[in-house]
Amino acid sequence: MASSKVLFFLTALLLPFSFYLSPPSAHAQAKITSPNYIIQMPNLNSGAGIPSSAGYKLDTTIGQTAPGLYSSTGYLVRSGFQYIHSIIPFSFSMSNFLINFGTLMPGTPVTRTSTLVVSAGGAGGYRVTAREASYLQTSTGKTIPDSTCDAGTCSETAAGVWSLATTYGFGYNMSGNDIPSDFIDGTYFRQFANAALSEGDQSVMSSVNVGRDRTATITYKVNVSAVQAAGSYQNRILFTAIPSF
Amino acid sequence: MNKLLKFKNKKIKGNFFVFLITLISLFVIYNSVAEAQTLGLSITPPIAEIMIIPGKIVTQTFTITNDGNDGMASIYIIPFKAQGESGNVTLDEKNAVTAASPYASWFSIISPVSTFGEKFYMAGGQRQEITVKITPPESAAEKDYYFTLLYELDNNIPGGTFPMGPTNQARIGANLILSLSRDGNPAKTAEIVEFKAPKIIDSLEKLTFDIRIGNFGSYVFKPDGEITIKPTLGSVETLSLTPLNIISDSVRNIPCLKDENIITCQSSRRVLVGVYKSTLEITPDGGGETQSKTVTTVAFPFSIIFGLLLIFITYRIIKKPQKVGKESS
Questions:
Q1: What DSSP line would sit under B129-196, residue for residue?
Q2: Which chain A positions have a beta carbon within 8 Å of B34's beta carbon?
Q3: Average pLDDT, chain B
Q4: Reading across the β-sheet that carries B190-196, which strands appear in turn?
Q5: 3-state secondary structure of B99
Q6: B84 close to A (CB below 8 A)
Q7: Is the predicted ipTM greater than 0.90, yes or no?
Q8: Cβ-Cβ contacts under 8 Å, B170 against chain A
Q9: Per mean pLDDT, which range of A7-21, A55-69, A155-169, B299-313 is the poorest?
């Protein structure tokens, strides 16, 4: 009787320890999460193990040592970047999305600016592209063409100097972080890629690095000649921000 | 006199009150206009990597926010390809997932709308979960498929009238890497396309490496590898590669990683002398065949010798006239 009591006591004492000492249960294989990185149904190579840092820095081997588990569930999901612990979402913002040039005077260039801000803290690098839907045009189809700059050489892919009041058209300049290198200074302009002419989107900001509040200023410029038809000219410019894969 | 002073005080107080009200009104009007002209979008997670058996179903949730003015949002799924060698994407917008697209049966949006491209209201500051169901058909070829989930926002135009000039729209994306595999263990092969270091460098220069790794297989992988720099004299230095995704049929520049910061692959030593043998070893996802390549660099103290020579010549030039002066006297 006494021995059974001792046995019960020992069992009660050792049982919690056995739970403590036993390897992690199937929970670890059901879902591993960190604020920025999630693995659902992971089959991790035991040789590498799961690095045990606060943020699950899974920068070693991820293999498939338990194909049975994969075949029963049918999928494996990894979200986020395994080498960055940041939880900042990928974000893009722009001030002044409505650009108003006001009344244009022939030979008097008008400029307006917007500020672009990208935070790719949890996304590695990124790229922001832009394209216009068409030339600046009136409802009756009259257009202000894209500028080819003073030397007639700038395009949607190459910037050129636009400083003469006798150079007409519409274009943009970039300054600030992560901008294309051909915007040497504030006198360099490009055309927007024109979707109506099947021109591909062009980068206005890009970086291979993790960045927070990367900021650039886009300056829109328009100048019309004396023969430009009167009217209200408008178009749409589409900015697309996508993180690196 | 007192009455006059009281009257003046009252007038000043009244003017001050009017001034205060005007200031507050202007502030409110200015802020509402500024807010009305701001576009702000965010999405998380920025990437989702999914391996799935053809015919199975998985749901993936993305969280989007509208940090600008109220507007109408819409969601699209568009295939992408690698653009350049820095991990950027180029969207194949002609093949966006629609009812007519070959991927129409693969994707369906569960919430907040039921069709891709369908507009839904997003108030300023609103967060919204986007749930997408992914069901690749059983007949789909076992390989990778790459898509971007795009969140587009059309902000309300204040006053409803367009001004003279352009109106900007914004879209933000999250990448979706979809690997179709029946056994969950597809073969992955990494190829070192380039591992370059200068053959001869000055001792005061840093040993910098260019690394380009190619994936000519059918599945994405992350290079698991390091550069080992062995000098003739001194201790060995090791640099870790950043485990960036290299999608199939692409080459990617791979930088190094130190404390979660992506850095140029560069030796940290300040003064180098002698022969340095640098070996790059990589394996795709830490498994599969190991690839390696070695480059040799000779570090010679050109600038130090040039500096010493310059000091010596300058010294001789300064000394010579003094000697000549002594001899003539």
A1: EEEEEE---TTS-SSEEEEEEEEEEEEPPGGG---SEEEEEEEEEEEEEEEE-SSS-----EEEEEEE
A2: 95
A3: 88
A4: B190-196, B210-215, B250-253
A5: coil
A6: no
A7: no
A8: 92, 94, 97, 238-241
A9: A55-69
| Residue A21: predicted pLDDT | 36
Chain A residue with Cα closest to B242: A83
Residues 270-329 of chain B whose Cβ lies under 8 A from any Cβ of chain A = 285-287
B44 touches chain A (CB under 8 A): yes
Residues 6 or more apart whose CB falls under 8 angstroms from that of A139 comprise: A231, A232
Domain with residues B40-157+168-180, CATH architecture: Sandwich (2.60)
Q: What is the pLDDT of residues B43-72, one digit of tens each?
A: 999 999 999 999 999 999 999 999 998 999
Token output for A232: 């209200």
CATH label, B190-305, candidates 3.20.20.60, 3.40.50.740, 2.60.40.10, 3.40.50.300: 2.60.40.10
How far apart are alpha carbons B254 and B28 in whole angstroms?
A: 49
* CB B49 within 8 Å of CB B180: no
CATH code at A91-243? 2.60.40
